[in-house]
Amino acid sequence: MLRVQNLSHVFRNGSEDTPVLKEINFTIHKGEIVALLGSSGSGKSTLLNLMAGLMKPTEGSIFIADQAIEKMSENKLAEFRRTNIGFIFQAYELISHMTVRENVELPLVFQGVKRSERRDRAMALLEKVGLKEKTEMFPSQLSGGQQQRVSIARSLITMPSIVFADEPTGNLDTKTENEIINLLIELNETLHITFVIVTHEQEVATRTKRIIQLRDGYLIDQTVAGGHPA
Ligand SMILES: Nc1ncnc2c1ncn2[C@@H]1O[C@H](COP(=O)(O)OP(=O)(O)OP(=O)(O)O)[C@@H](O)[C@H]1O
User: Fold this and answer.
1) What is the similarity comment for this entry (predicted)?
2) Can you tell me the distance from the alpha carbon of 8 to that of 229, in angstroms, rounded to the nearest whole number?
């Protein structure tokens, strides 16, 4: 599903080089839920940006669904991202003047899906994430945990092959954090969608079956507890 091969990344600012990722190799299989764990500055965001095709690596390759994304043109990559990759952000990134349902429908608007189908798919997902009663509300009328549920529904609406969640519980209290991680695990089990959860919190990471850990740019540990072998 996702294969990272001999990946290295160096930020070049003038004469100064900052090596951030060093010879990273791993594979995530379809239907896995994996935590990408690392402390601040370990290179998580850089790796996430590379895996999502938002940056090109200095060296190495990233394959998603057997396609080397670093070799794609900008246009092809944008289209690939729209159809194959879902995102969940720490700060939800919802559009404030759109209702919950309209936010969830939005990726389908860009795909030209007709109104009635958009609505049906959004309503079904909003029910799945426990927001059946909130579909016509605006994001500001919801709690943080509820807003993150909207963002989760939005990330799934295109039925992507992989969803990247960047510190999805970073703005939430412990109880809500647990509920959101439970929801991601449940969606992974029922929809067989591949999730990568980026986190600096060990407690969040240990909820998943597999942890990929970054330290100072190196992949130092891959724990598998009942998931696919690494
Ligand atoms: N554009 C850049 N130019 C130079 N160095 C950079 C750039 N972006 C990131 N870095 C450096 O790369 C290293 C890894 O940063 P990155 O943001 O990937 O870490 P992180 O694990 O996501 O941290 P955090 O949890 O704090 O977001 C850091 O030392 C950072 O200073």
Assistant:
1) Belongs to the ABC transporter superfamily.
2) 23
- What interface predicted TM-score (ipTM) does this complex get? 0.95
For 155, the token pair is: 């990330």
CB 8 within 8 A of CB 57: yes
| Residue 79 CA neighbour count, 13 Å, CB half | 6
pTM of this structure: 0.92
Task: For a ligand 1 pocket test, name from 42, 47, 166 the mutation site with the most ligand atoms within 8 angstroms of its C-beta.
Answer: 42
Amino acid (1-letter code) at residue 86: G
- One-letter identity of residue 143: S
| CB distance 24 to 219 below 8 Å | yes
Cα dist. 208→41, 165, 171, 205 in Å? 22, 13, 19, 6
- Tell me, in angstroms, the distance from the centre of ligand 1 to residue 11's CA: 9
Q: How far apart are CA 9 and CA 16, in angstroms?
A: 14
What's the 42 CA to ligand 1 centre distance in angstroms?
Answer: 7
Q: Report CA-CA distances (Å) from 42 to 35, 199, 200, 206.
A: 14, 11, 9, 18
Q: Which fold has domain 2-93+161-224?
A: Rossmann fold (3.40.50)
What is the number of the ligand 1 atom nearest to the C-alpha of 49? 18
Q: Give domain limits for the chain.
A: 2-93+161-224
pLDDT per position as a tens digit, 69-124: 999 999 999 999 998 999 999 999 999 999 999 999 999 999 999 999 999 999 99
